[in-house]
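Bug: token stream looks shifted between consecutive jobs. Job 1:
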Amino acid sequence: MLKDYYEYCQTHNLTAHSEQLLYELYKVENPMLPKAKDINEVVAHCCQRLNITPDDLKKKCRQRHYVYCKMVTAWMLLQVPCITLERIGAVVGQDHVVILYYKRKVNEMIEVKDKSFMPYYQWVCGDGR
């Protein structure tokens, strides 16, 4: 039953909050979730890998490099349980609605393996060279 529920969460793209509930109920961790203890660890990791500062994330800028950095950082923060969209938005200098847009766009770009976006995703997720 637990395996079925876990697979259901994965196939239906349920949020990190659902995975946190799964962990609390059954003490099962998703190996894909970052092991960060808080927002600052995720932001520090993303900034280090992308060679930017946390202040760069809050910049009002439409340059592709900064937008992709914000998208990847927001997507990574969405994987951490119990972080609100508003809090993630404050970290990357965007509104909570933009965070939902980032989530959808990142998932689409990962699915189609967008050539301009994938290096950013791979650098943050540890596959980058």
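Job 2, same session, no restart:
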Amino acid sequence: MQTPERRRLTYSQKAFAGTRFSDHIAMLNVFQQWEDARSSGPASEERFCEIKMVSMPTLRVTWEAKNQLISLITQAGFPEESMQMQNYNVSGPNDKLDVIIALMCMGFYPNVCYPSSKRKVNNVFFFFNFLSSW
């Protein structure tokens, strides 16, 4: 069993999220840095995981899942060029990263809000409040 001190994130692990304060962005950043280290060889990959205290098996499973998704998406007709790795600045402004965050929000919370007219958006909480006031 791990001690509470062992379960806390190190400063270098927290730094993966940059100024976004997001676990998902931290994972994206870890994965990109790991892929860079991996391209330099197995020793570099192991050293990265050891220094940053991240799980190599988890990153490898993530890499396999990524490649499966890329294969499925290209089979569905999307161009391979659109699957190229992108670099994101997690510590400053980055329009591409803002789009990624918006897409993740849409994927994780698909019914949070919906348009009701040209300039009005209702959210699920408004709907529930409306129903509970009956």
